[in-house]
Amino acid sequence: MEARLNAQQASPAAYAAMIGLEMFVRKASKLELSLVELVKVRASQINGCAYCIDIHTKDARNEGETEQRLYALTSWRETPFFTARERAALAWTESLTLIAEGHVPDDIYELAKQSFSDEELVNLTLAVITINGWNRLGISFRSVPGAYQPAMHNAETSK
Question: 107-139 b/e with 16+ CB inside 10 Å = b?
Answer without folding.
Answer: ebbebbeebbeeebbebbbebbebbbebbebbb
